[in-house]
Write a structure and sequence with these properties.
The complex is a heterodimer.
Chain A: H1 5-39, H2 42-45, E1 49-50, E2 59-61, E3 64-66, E4 71-72, H3 75-105, H4 109-124, H5 127-154, H6 170-194, H7 198-206, H8 211-222, H9 224-240, H10 243-248, H11 267-278, H12 285-311
Antiparallel strand pairs in A: 1-4, 2-3
Helix pairs in contact in A: 1-12, 3-6, 3-9, 4-6, 5-6, 6-9, 7-8, 9-12, 11-12
Chain B: H1 4-49, H2 53-56, E1 59-60, E2 63-64, H3 67-98, H4 102-116, H5 119-133, H6 140-164, H7 168-176, H8 181-210, H9 213-216, H10 238-245, H11 251-281, H12 283-286
Classes of the chains: A mainly alpha, B mainly alpha.
Chain lengths: 321, 290
């Protein structure tokens, strides 16, 4: 076989992408291994995160050196991550479908480009700017308007009643996440709607359907798997979002949210907020336990992405531009 | 005899359809309003914090200018491109030309997966391997490499798509004239694909400019101008100012945070508007593509 240097160079550089992914998995797993043996399953079900006594001599527990009283349980952050993402999706999914329908079918082509740009910009705003806006605008709004309003309307459900607090918390974090997820779902569904064969639409029109009925009864069912895939893609984004959540969630350590206004902490935001204090641990077990959180987040994101890609089909996901 | 029921049924369907369109339009307003408010808030508060000193002085505690952060962001983003552009472009070329087999499909899939990995996970990976493992400490190289891993999937994706749009007749003509693979790709296909590749690189820049989480524990923070060292020396960047200074209870800190946010949003907005105009102009050439 002829040696083709150009092609060899291409293959070598191309291999770097899967290798990077593999390296993230291997090095996070290797680094967090002592934490995995130390924490065991307690890591996922414990709800206390305690660095232990950093001033006393560390002792050997379960085969590894850790500070006395060290206890790493992340159930509070798992619950925080799942709750913020779930509420964000409950808000984002209907809104995204509305936006996708509006952009794909409800506009003349000239206006469509302009208004699509609004959604693209929503995806382009950096996470930390969402956090800044959440800090300056959204949390006061939640504390004084949205929170009291929601409590008046939904207050008969315990989860929506009780103290509203400062505005930092589950509700603010979920709203910010919803804003960040909408462009992902809306763009994917809009592109899928645009690909629906015109025969499908014409058949529905021929049966006497109105334009909206064509969309609702003929087009949406045709792109159902794309919609589910897009939602899972959005879920993956919400689960791993860090800065925006960190800046509006208030931060809760060692207690579960009592209502929708309570402060929360997610797994991703906890990593950023805790590394400084974790570095004080001379045994490094706290830093390794944070690596275990990162490892779990990595595995979750790979799983959600694989499912989403399989559902949206072999065609590449909607390019962000 | 006209059936009274039938008429009301049609009326009801029309009403429901109208309601459906109304809800769809309302959804759009619901997401457009926060976006406009974000831009309005950042621009209003950012503009009022703008001053000449911002661009001439370095940060001094929580006041002063942003020169260190502005140059730091540029250094980190350029550093990311140094790694991400060659890898992404070469990978994109491979995927577009030879990516039909098992290896190509796998890479394409993993490329998508890598784009979905949360940035904080990549940041922590770099912290563990580069900052601690290799002992680079908070540094330009660690920050740039992390950003590069983040944006490389986008460069590869854009490059692949733009090479796919080169008419295959052109390549075949090249081979028919006896050109080598290398010549056909670099001399015939590359000039046509170049605008698409640049689009991908610009897109990567826009993402890298706005990232915070992967930099906090790889690039660190510094009040001083970058001294040219690649490792062992932390560096400042704009998004750090936004995140960190807004939590300080001082007016000067808040002003700097909004000024930094204004600069970041301005750059991201300019890149996106530019891309949008360029893509729209290129639309006729792109039609017929999947």
């Amino acid at each position: 076989m002829k040696l083709r240097p150009f092609r060899i160079v291409l293959v070598l550089f191309t291999s770097l992408i899967p290798l990077a992914l593999l390296a993230v998995l291997i090095f996070l797993a290797r680094y967090s291994w002592p934490a995995l043996t130390f924490n065991g399953w307690h890591f996922l079900v414990g709800h206390i995160w305690n660095l232990g006594n950093l001033y006393a001599d560390p002792v050997e527990q379960r085969g590894v050196l850790a500070p006395i009283g060290a206890d790493y349980g992340i159930l509070v952050f798992i619950v925080g991550t799942l709750l913020t993402s779930a509420i964000a999706l409950i808000i984002a999914i209907p809104v995204s479908l509305g936006v996708a329908i509006f952009l794909a079918e409800g506009l003349h082509s000239r206006l469509r480009g302009l208004l699509s740009f609004v959604v693209e910009m929503l995806a382009a705003v950096p996470s930390v700017v969402y956090g800044l806006w959440g800090y300056a605008v959204l949390t006061p709004l939640v504390a004084h308007t949205l929170g009291p309003g929601l409590r008046t309307v939904m207050g008969f459900i315990p989860f929506f009643s009780g103290a509203i607090g400062s505005g930092y918390g589950l509700l603010a974090a979920s709203i910010v996440l919803a804003l960040m997820v909408v462009p992902i779902i809306a763009a994917t569904v809009r592109d899928a709607l645009a690909q629906v064969p015109s025969e499908t639409k014409e058949a529905a029109y021929a049966l006497g359907a109105t334009h909206f009925e064509v969309v609702r009864r003929a087009m949406l069912p045709a792109v159902r798997s794309n919609i589910i895939g897009a939602c899972i893609l959005g879920l993956g984004r919400a689960l791993g979002e860090t800065m925006a959540v960190l800046m509006v969630s208030g931060g809760a350590l060692n207690y579960f949210p009592g209502n929708i206004y309570s402060p929360v902490t997610t797994m991703a935001s906890f990593i950023v907020s805790q590394l400084d204090s974790a570095m004080q641990d001379p045994t490094g077990m706290a830093v390794r336990s944070l690596a275990e959180i990162a490892l779990i987040l990595f595995i979750i994101s790979v799983i959600t992405n694989v499912i989403a890609r399989l559902l949206t089909g072999t065609s590449r996901n909607a390019s962000p531009v | 005899m006209p059936h009274p029921f039938k008429l009301s049924r049609i009326t009801r369907r029309k009403w429901l359809s109208g309601l459906g369109w109304g809800l769809a339009a309302a959804s759009f307003v619901l997401v457009a309003t926060p976006l406009l408010d974000i831009l309005y808030t950042v621009i209003r508060k950012g503009m009022s914090a703008l001053s000449f000193e911002l661009f001439t002085k370095v940060t001094n505690g929580i006041s002063g200018g942003l020169l260190n952060a502005i140059t730091g962001t540029l250094v980190l983003v350029s550093g990311a491109l140094v790694f991400a552009a060659p890898v992404g472009i070469l990978a994109g070329i491979y995927l577009s030309q030879f990516g039909q087999g098992r290896f190509g499909r796998t890479v394409r899939f993993l490329d998508d997966v890598l784009a979905g990995v949360p940035s904080i996970v990549l940041g922590y990976f770099s912290y563990v391997t580069l900052v601690i493992g290799l002992g680079w400490q908070f540094s330009v190289l660690a920050g740039s490499l992390t950003l590069a891993i983040m944006v490389v999937p986008y460069v590869a994706r854009f490059t692949e798509i733009s090479f796919m749009q080169v008419p295959s007749g052109l390549r075949e003509a090249g081979y028919a004239l006896g050109f080598r693979e290398f010549t056909v790709i670099t001399r015939l296909a590359l000039p046509l694909a170049l605008p698409g590749i640049l689009t991908g690189v610009l897109f990567a820049i826009a993402i890298a400019l706005g990232e915070t989480a992967p930099l906090i524990y790889t690039a660190g923070w510094s009040n001083f101008l970058w001294n040219g060292k690649l490792i062992h020396e932390p560096i400042g960047y704009l998004t750090y100012v936004i995140w960190s200074f807004i939590n300080q209870p001082y007016r000067s800190a808040h002003a700097l945070a909004f000024a930094a946010a204004f600069l970041v949003i301005l750059m991201v907005l300019l890149i996106n508007v530019g891309l949008n105009v360029a893509l729209r102009r290129a639309r006729p050439a792109r039609s017929g593509q999947r």
